Structures are given as C-alpha cells and as structure tokens.
From TrEMBL:
Localisation per UniProt entry: Cell membrane
Primary localization class, coarse: membrane
An example molecular function term from Gene Ontology annotations: sodium:proton antiporter activity
Pfam families in alphabetical order: MrpF_PhaF
Keyword Hydrolase: no
InterPro entries: MrpF/PhaF-like
Protein name: Multisubunit Na+/H+ antiporter MnhF subunit
Family of this protein: Belongs to the CPA3 antiporters (TC 2.A.63) subunit F family.
Bilayer topology annotation: Multi-pass membrane protein
Keyword Transmembrane helix: yes
Entry keyword set: Cell membrane, Membrane, Transmembrane, Transmembrane helix, Transport
Lineage: superkingdom: Bacteria
Amino acid sequence: MLGIVYTATSAMLALSVLFVLFRLVRGPSVLDRIMCLSTLSVLLVSFMAVEMAVRGDNAYIGVLVSIALLGFVATLTAARFAERRAHDLD
C-alpha cells in the first residue's frame, strides 16, 4: 500500500515540476519566473520529505529546513524588490 502512495505522490510532484518548468520558461515577467523558482524549491523539499518518509530516515532534515528557509527568504526578497519597483514606477 505504501508503495502505491509513494508512486502516486512522486508522479504528482513530477507533474507539478513539469508545469512549473513550463511556466518558468514561458513566464511573461521576471516575477513569474522568481515565483516559479520558489515553487520549485517547495517541490524539492516535498519530494525529499516523501523520500525520507518512505525510507524511514531523518538524516536530511537539516537540509530540508535549510532549503525551505532559503526559498522563503528568496520569496520575501523578490516581493520587496517588486514592491519597490512598483513604487518607483508610480
């Protein structure tokens, strides 16, 4: 049963990565591309968490937290950049 759940979860995450990569390439603006990179980091953390759960191993929990924190800080930085840029254009 766990194998079926793992396969389904991995397939959904892989499909999500494909959609995000498509949007990354075709995104009309820089902010779209930045948000796609943020989403890719979340998908990476999700895939690693599923892999750790299946293996019953928690050796990479520090890596997961680091990647999640880095993605969060990058998203905040992009939002501040967009806010300042919009304010400067007004």
